[in-house]
Amino acid sequence: MRAGLLTAIRDVCCGEVPEPKPGPHDVLVAVRSVGVCGSDVHYYLRGCIGTQVVKEFPFILGHEAAGEVVAVGPAVERLKPGDRVAVEPGIPCGACEPCVTGQYNLCRAVRFLGTPPVHGAYCEYLAVPEPFAHPLPPELSFDEGAMVEPLAIGLFAADLGGVRPGHSVAVLGAGSIGLVTLMCAVAAGAGPIYVSEPLAYRREAALRLGAAAAFDPAAEDVVARVQEATGGRGVDVVFEAAGAVQAHQQLADVVRPGGTVVPIGSCAEELVPLPLANFRRKGLEVRFLRRFCHTYPRAIALARAGQVNLGALVTHRFPLERLDDAFRLVAEYGDGVIKAVATL
């Protein structure tokens, strides 16, 4: 089958790999759309994310996938050929303490698509355990189905932040993860919501999707602007979705005493200095996010009901043969890109 192969740092090409063989509990999914995630670009540019290193080339990246079931194993009970599905990319062991206590996103033995050594979704077919192939309603396109994965992160972040109607919120960073977090906060009834983002076109997207104001951290004092907007109180909940050291260091300053901080983004730096004394003095609750857990069905339901706009994320589409172009566009923040998808 065809696959987009990372053959070296900054080098992706289309090649042939063996087609996967589904097990008795698996469905074989013909992949139709795969979102280009920032983590894919990290591997493309550096070959690693922290201690997760691509040790053998070629390697297949990609984990934001949707497609059509074309075959099922003999023990599959719910899905059938022809069903459209969004693929949840993390397959936990099911037996460790986090798994049996309901926190399968913390499974240390998880097999996550496109995370070394597990090959990912930039390919024609995936064998997926049935519970992790979620039915995609006809109202949603395959591109929107691929965007369910980032939406699941935003929804899990909103859950961890305890976002409630009337809560004031700040989202630092308006890439795709920041925007889905914004949309989930809006869907939860939060407001006003303030966004910090250096790229003007992404600030405009945030305003269209429900932000009350969007600040430029390259030209404005974001902390001062949020404090001014809230009468010196600070927001109830703040999310870091930029993966930037500066944004992490602003968290304690934009949130109110006793408020909630949810770091989402991953910094390139392994060690990020934080003003912990300020966190302690303000009695902040910090809820770190690791991917998502039990949010895929709810994310699909939100999108189906029109409470979030996944189509607003997808700005560029590339055939699999031009995956290298997609990676370079996202890496360079070119042409107003928010989210690029590879289509098959």
How does this model look, in words?
With 344 residues, the protein is of the alpha/beta class. It has helices at residues 38-46, 97-100, 142-146, 148-161, 176-187, 200-208, 222-229, 245-254, 276-281, 296-304, 323-331; strands at 2-8, 11-16, 26-35, 48-49, 52-53, 64-72, 84-87, 90-91, 111-112, 125-129, 133-135, 169-172, 193-196, 213-215, 235-240, 255-263, 285-286, 314-319, 339-343. The protein is built from 11 helices and 19 strands. The strands form 5 sheets. Strands 3, 6, 7, 10, 11, 18 and 19 form a 7-stranded mixed β-sheet that branches. Strands 14-13-12-15-16-17 form a 6-stranded parallel β-sheet, sandwiched between helices. Strands 1-2 form a two-stranded antiparallel sheet. A hairpin with a 2-residue loop joins β4 and β5. It is globular.
- What's the number of structural domains? 2
The level-1 CATH class of the largest domain? Alpha Beta
Give the helix tally. Answer: 11
Structural class: alpha/beta
* Low-confidence residue ranges: none
Straight-line N-to-C gap: 11 Å
Backbone CA Rg: 20 Å
Query: β content, as a range?
Result: 25-35%
CATH third-level topology of the largest domain: Quinone Oxidoreductase, Chain A, domain 1
Q: Name the helix and strand elements from N-terminus to C-terminus, one letter apiece.
A: EEEHEEEEEHEEEHHEHEHEHEHEHEHEHE
Biggest sheet record: 7 strands, mixed
Q: CATH superfamily assignment of the largest domain?
A: Medium-chain alcohol dehydrogenases, catalytic domain
Shape: globular
